[in-house]
């Protein structure tokens, strides 16, 4: 989801304070080229990426996500997000 201007500014300030002082782990499912849209400011996104990537090790993980794989195993893939599983009743009367 795109960040508001204030949220993007706060994230940038966090990076500036942590820059070359401590570690930071950031995960994203978006490529770096899409970050301008996320921060609603391509210049700010470039400044953020400059600081993040300066001493960074980046990992690009490809393949099916763990959550999606587990959802498929449980038979929930393709079900609308807000629908609850169907209630199953069993008649145990003798």
Please describe the structure with a list of short key phrases separated by commas or semicolons:
single chain, mainly alpha, elongated, 41% helix, 4 helices, 94 residues
The overall pLDDT average reads 84
* Computed CA radius of gyration, to the nearest angstrom: 21 Å
Topology as a string of helices (H) and strands (E): HHHH
Q: Approximately what portion of the residues adopt beta-strand conformation?
A: under 5%
Largest sheet: none
Query: How many β-strand runs?
Result: 0
Separation of the first and last Cα atoms: 55 Å
Structural class: mainly alpha
Shape label: elongated
Q: Count of helical segments?
A: 4
Helix share bin: 40-55%
- Stretches with pLDDT under 50, minimum 5 residues: none
What does this structure look like?
The structure is a single chain. The chain has 94 residues and is mostly helical. The chain has a domain at 5-58. Helix content is 41%, strand content 0%. It contains 4 helices and no strands. The termini are far apart.
List the helices and strands and how they pair.
Elements: H1 5-18, H2 35-38, H3 42-54, H4 66-73
Helix pairs in contact: 1-3
């Amino acid at each position: 989801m795109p960040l508001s201007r204030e949220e993007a500014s706060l994230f940038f300030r966090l990076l500036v304070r942590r820059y070359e002082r401590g570690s930071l782990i950031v995960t994203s499912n978006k490529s770096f080229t899409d970050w301008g849209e996320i921060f609603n400011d391509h210049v700010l996104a470039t400044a953020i990426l400059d600081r993040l990537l300066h001493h960074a090790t980046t990992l690009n993980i490809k393949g099916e996500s763990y959550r999606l794989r587990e959802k498929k195993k449980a038979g929930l893939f393709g079900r609308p997000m807000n629908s609850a599983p169907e209630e199953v009743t069993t008649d145990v009367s003798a």
